[in-house]
Amino acid sequence: MSLVTDSPVNSSSSDDFAALLDSALDSASSDSSPVEEAKDDDDVEIESIKRHKVENMGSTEEPDGSTSQVSVTEVLEEESTKQNTCTHPGSFGDMCIICGQRLEQESGVTFGYIHKGLRLNNDEIVRLRSKDMKNLLRHKKLHLVLDLDHTLLNSTQLVHMTPEEEYLKSQTDSLQDVSNGSLFMLENMHMMTKLRPFVRTFLKEASEMYEMHIYTMGDRAYALAMANILDPKREYFGERVISRDDGTQKHQKGLDVVLGQESAVLILDDTENAWTKHKENLILMERYHFFRSSCHQFGFNCKSLSELKSDESETEGALATVLKVLKQIHNNFFDNTSDNLMGRDVRQVLKTLRQEILKDCKIVFSRVFPTKFQAENHQLWKMAEQLGATCSTELDPSVTHVVATDAGTEKSRWAAKEKKFLVHPRWIEATNYLWQKLPEENFSVSVVKNQ
Amino acid sequence: MFFHIVMERNMQLHPRHFGRNLRENIVSKLMKDVEGTCSGRHGFVVAITGIENIGKGLIRDGTGFVTFPVKYQCVVFRPFKGEILEAVVTMVNKMGFFAEAGPVQIFVSNHLIPDDMEFQSGDMPNYTTSDGSVKIQKDSEVRLKIIGTRVDATEIFCIGTIKDDFLGVINDPATA
Ligand SMILES: [Mg+2]
Ligand SMILES: [Zn+2]
After folding, report:
1. What CATH class has B2-77?
2. Of A94, A121, A148, which residue sits at a domain end?
3. ipTM score
4. Is A131 a domain residue?
5. Which residues of chain B lie closer than 8 angstroms to A76, CB-CB?
């Protein structure tokens, strides 16, 4: 009895074949110079190489030559001229996308969400972006990067659903025709997803002004499943579906994997911290919490919309509001004909538009920030300034609003006496989300007793 | 390029497969193991077309498994540098386009698309000549030339070009 190896036997015939392939490639290079010199004989040469191969195959049959043909000379010519000049701007399957040469070192940014094995170097990304910009502007479009969770939809794990949410399981829409549904059960992912009201109209109208991308902190499978629900006809996103698997930095989203110039990209996301490098491109969204688990995750202990059998308003909800803003920004970007389009920056347009909202307000905060906190660094202070308000720590006649959580503070009492607006901090937040100065009387402040 | 070749492989079989159906069992396991795989040398094994012979089985010490050397004929597909291939376009974007020829994934970068073809975005992105006569979009059939190949365990990657005479669209689904 004898022991045998695990590996497949390298039989004589497969050795022959491998040797043949090698020799075919070798013979191609050694044959190249005579072929180059005698152009008229190209066909003959190629034929002979081919026949040479077939003969060498011994027991095997003639290869199917009807759709394939070898033209060795051209390759070699191209190779010799390109090898010296090619900068290898990117790779596919570790081969240069221009010269086909095998590249040993991985470099550049991976674009796995577009196609497996694709990488591009910075220069190539810059080149593509500037080409894209011209194309985009010709079509009067800009880029729009959309977050999924809490921005366009809300998802929950099935195991996290409360008894009061059980009724939803019998109300889900069919996954066969998703284009009209808004509540979906994704059994293989053990999840339920609710689309935010107005999202269908939003996507349709936004797609006419923006080239849209999805960018989620979910994984690739989740991103694709959601893209499928939001865009069943594949008219909006194409291959532009980016997940956390595609980012270059952990727990961060970045425009480095988006093939659009930063000056032409807007972002809608409910998580400001995900975009630390691109805050100027960001329109912060009010979070959409439909399921109880989502409220719970963000520390709200109230009943969820699902439990109350209620939902955000279709016509006055966050997506309807932000669509108006997107239209305005698009208008402002393209309608102003005084300077050249290429030089414009959507971040500037966004900033200017935002600064209109509270432009005549002068705000003083009263005990809103922790003592010792540098007031100018507080999120609310910055938010008010971005909305165009002037913030101050001193009371004077030019002050228009005092922001406080307690009507009993000294500054609050001053506001009442001087007939200035006294508002809750939520007034600034809501103004920021809704892009309009909201009626102050809806954000009144009462006296807190136990101080 | 397709080749019809003879290859050999040692098949390990569990004793439960012995008996009247031994030969069938060996062949079906061979098909399962080999078809659809790639090797850098032979390329992609498209199909097993016949069994030349099955050698004497050798019992392995300790396990009772038996190894049979099997010689089989199969059709393999392997792209070569310089080969002209016909492929179906699977995706078009500003970087270029991707195409498939069976198991082969080919990328044609916009550097290697003729300069008179411009990228057009939209829900059906495409590359079109200025007079609109030639259009490359998803599902177009193109003739391209391979300038680089890489064979993995299950996939074959190629770099292609259509920047040359007689290359480009051969069948446009939009006009078909
Ligand atoms: Mg989110
Ligand atoms: Zn190169």
Report:
1. alpha beta
2. A121
3. 0.86
4. no
5. 82
Q: Select from A121, A151, A174 the last residue of a domain.
A: A121
Separation in Å, CA of B88 to nearest CA in chain A: 14
Residues 6+ apart with CB under 8 A from B66: B12, B13, B15, B18, B57, B58, B59, B60
Q: What is the CATH code of the structural domain delimited by B84-171?
A: 2.40.50.140
Contacts of A250 (CB under 8 A, 6+ apart): none
Q: Is some CB atom of chain A closer than 8 A to the CB atom of B154?
A: no
Domain that holds residue A101: 12-121
The domain spanning residue A438 has which CATH number?
Answer: 3.40.50.10190
- Walk along chain A (451 residues) and give the pLDDT tens digit of each residue: 444 444 444 444 445 555 555 555 544 443 333 333 333 333 434 444 444 444 444 333 444 444 444 444 444 555 555 446 899 999 999 999 999 999 988 888 999 999 999 999 999 999 999 999 988 998 899 999 999 999 999 999 999 999 999 999 999 999 888 988 999 999 999 999 999 999 999 999 999 999 999 999 999 999 999 999 999 999 999 999 999 989 888 889 999 999 999 999 999 999 999 999 999 999 999 999 999 999 999 988 889 999 999 999 999 999 999 999 999 999 999 986 666 777 889 999 999 999 999 999 999 999 888 878 888 889 899 999 999 999 999 999 999 999 999 999 999 999 999 999 999 999 999 999 999 999 999 999 888 875 4
- Cα of A82 to ligand 2 centre, how many Å? 7
DSSP, residue by residue, A160-194: G--GGGGGGGGSPPPSSSGGG--EEEEGGGTEEEE
Contact A4 B10 (CB under 8 A): yes
Collapse the DSSP code of A390 into the 3-class scheme (helix H, G, I; strand E, B; otherwise coil) and give the result. strand
Distance from residue A270's CA to the centre of ligand 1 (Å): 5
Question: Which residues from chain A sit within 8 angstroms of residue B6, using beta carbons?
Answer: 11, 13-14, 59-60
| Same domain, yes or no: A170 and A258 | yes
3-state DSSP assignment of residue A446: coil
A157 pairs with which residues across the strands? A191
State whether A135 and B94 contact (CB < 8 Å).
yes
Judge whether A5 lies within some domain.
Answer: no
Considering the entire predicted model, what is its pTM? 0.81
What DSSP line would sit under chain B, residue for residue?
-EEEEEEEEEEEE-GGG-STTHHHHHHHHHHHHHTT-EETTTEEEEEEEEEEEE---EEPTTT--EEEEEEEEEEEE---TTEEEEEEEEEEETTEEEEEETTEEEEEEGGGS-TTEEEE-SSS-EEEETTS--EE-TT-EEEEEEEEEEE-SS-EEEEEE--STT-EEEE-TTT-
Q: Is residue A341 part of a domain?
A: no
Residue A1 lies in a domain: no
Which ranges of A336-402 does DSSP label H, i.e. alpha helix?
346-355, 379-386
